[in-house]
Amino acid sequence: MQTTDTATGSRSERGRQAFTEVMTFDPPPGPAAPDSLLDYVFAEVWTRPVLSRRDRRFVTLACVADSDAEQLLIDHVYAALNSGDLSIVEMRETVLHFAVYAGWPKASRFNIVVDQQWDRIHRERGLPVPAPEPLLPLVTPSDPEERLVRGTQSFKDVNCMPFAPDRNNPYQGAGILNFVFGEMWLRPGLSMKARRLITVACVGFQDAPLPILSHVYAALKSRDVSFEEMDELALQFGAYCGLPKGTYLSQVIREQKGRVVHEWRVEAEQEQS
Amino acid sequence: MQTTDTATGSRSERGRQAFTEVMTFDPPPGPAAPDSLLDYVFAEVWTRPVLSRRDRRFVTLACVADSDAEQLLIDHVYAALNSGDLSIVEMRETVLHFAVYAGWPKASRFNIVVDQQWDRIHRERGLPVPAPEPLLPLVTPSDPEERLVRGTQSFKDVNCMPFAPDRNNPYQGAGILNFVFGEMWLRPGLSMKARRLITVACVGFQDAPLPILSHVYAALKSRDVSFEEMDELALQFGAYCGLPKGTYLSQVIREQKGRVVHEWRVEAEQEQS
Amino acid sequence: MQTTDTATGSRSERGRQAFTEVMTFDPPPGPAAPDSLLDYVFAEVWTRPVLSRRDRRFVTLACVADSDAEQLLIDHVYAALNSGDLSIVEMRETVLHFAVYAGWPKASRFNIVVDQQWDRIHRERGLPVPAPEPLLPLVTPSDPEERLVRGTQSFKDVNCMPFAPDRNNPYQGAGILNFVFGEMWLRPGLSMKARRLITVACVGFQDAPLPILSHVYAALKSRDVSFEEMDELALQFGAYCGLPKGTYLSQVIREQKGRVVHEWRVEAEQEQS
């Protein structure tokens, strides 16, 4: 009993300390019931190894931007930029990537919050806000046919698949091949690993079974996210999106690990023979 | 008592009859508790005037595609196509529009369901599935600068706003101006009114306050959706997305009606003077 | 260090034991990272005092039905019925109440799962499935005018408000007054407290600011849910819907507690004078 109390006490302390480190400001005072959850998440999730604090931010930002809890979104955007874990370029690409995978309306609020917190950080430091990077020129081709060809290749590369969807379908052609894979995934400014973390979090809360499966698979198969990192992603995601979605994601991860291990074994055997 | 039985009985009958008309197949048998809601939705929501059954389908398809209840999505896609209320071109554009406003992962499932139900309807009728319309040529310009100029104008037109966001921000430039307004909203195949109905439903369940406000405003201000139609949209939306989001949307509608009436009055006065 | 290790070790044991008690079956084997979250939720959330296991089920069922993790929904419906914590009548009313507050499509799946698990439990016990309760007669009036009058009074009672919305608006009249408050909330078979728990969970994940505020307020003001129970509700909700929504709900609870305490003080002073 005593042991448990002490452990819980120390967890609360560890939780508050981890909160300050992650959030770059002190936790709010006052004992409300969800403090138990808050302590757990900061003391025992954010502080875990394998996935860095910076990597955990991509997962968390996606979950918080989806959840409509505006104050938490403000806090996490501020913390990610104020800590220096994310550059403003990375943050802005995160917003665009999130828009595609979680819907433009929620991304619209996310974008506004980024602008406000970027201003606030410069105000707090007495610095002028630097001018944004110019949008043009894009790195992707302009010709519609060339865009589709490039988008088709990018679709195969990102999804680790030998085929791509038929272009003569507005969702697939005008949307997926032309814009999502023909432009968005190819933009510089955000690493492939970061895009994977955001994407898996977004398909996780969007719940459509096939995209969860295919993006977990591709993140593992591409080796952009290791098996151990993916498990940590699931825990971070579960804390911010809730146990049911975390459990489902975790189950898909287990299955896709098996599939990837099997494929790697077959590929190794083929190389040897 | 007698009265109750008759009136309720008749609602249940009307509900089942309306179900068959809307869904193009008979309702499942059996008295479960939610039958009360099912009867209500079909007898007293779908059958209401002002917003046509076809118009109600756009709202309902968006809500059902968001809700992850796959069987209902299958049923409503089938019903919309089987009844002839929506053409396959309109349905495919609905999927793309939904993808932008509700997220690509959910739209991915929607897209698969459309393909399957389109096949099923042709199988049931003993007809071959016609070839899809070719994606190219697009009606929008290829040059990035021209696309941004066109997207900026389209943003102002669709949102009934005199200004557009700065392009030098990936979400705004590469996303909103280049693709969402520079291409997606400009595609043929779906009427402006249908796009409004889908958009308002999507911003309604996405919950970000500003997009709800701006899309309700623009739908009314543009006169693409009348005040009475918007009220019916809120009821149809509330039945399919739940009371809390319906209540919030309804409140925004009330406020934006006031704003639009005021602006129309000012504009009329300016024209007279 | 030693202490922490022991406490964590025992938490995992306590978590697995609580899982078995709550779920009526053993937890799945295997050490995945989200096990940490699973252990925490079962060892330190479900086992807490103030809110009974039965009460926690209403909150959890709503969250799980919303989350689209179908296996978890199956498990929790099974557990709630198999443990005897909820009767089948209560469960079916929960589905109807959920349908109104979370949307018909998700409730449709919930309803199917309830039927299947009810069948399964009877199959496992070698018992026939009893016939369902007949829907008719309803306890509410049939005459539309009487229904609106009754719905208006019920709206005021449930929401602890002195006024009700205008009936001449489809969403408010045909939706809110006629059906939701004129019929659904008045149905027997589910206690007011259970309806409050489900409603607060649903408005919590639906995120629309006004309904969260008004239902938290009414649950506290009516004394159907005590202050301490509401805090526990927020924790249970946070575990199943994620930290951001839990934090937001928690914040609204804090504000509404203040408002209710203030109103009770004013009312007590008015009675004394």
TrEMBL record, chains A, B, C:
Protein name: Carboxymuconolactone decarboxylase family protein
Organism: Nocardia jiangsuensis
InterPro entries hit by this protein: 4CMD/NDH-1_regulator (IPR052512), AhpD-like (IPR029032), CMD-like (IPR003779)
Pfam family membership, one: CMD
Transmembrane segments: none
SUPFAM superfamilies on file: AhpD-like (SSF69118)
Limits of the Carboxymuconolactone decarboxylase-like domain: 31-109, 175-252
Top-rank taxon: Bacteria
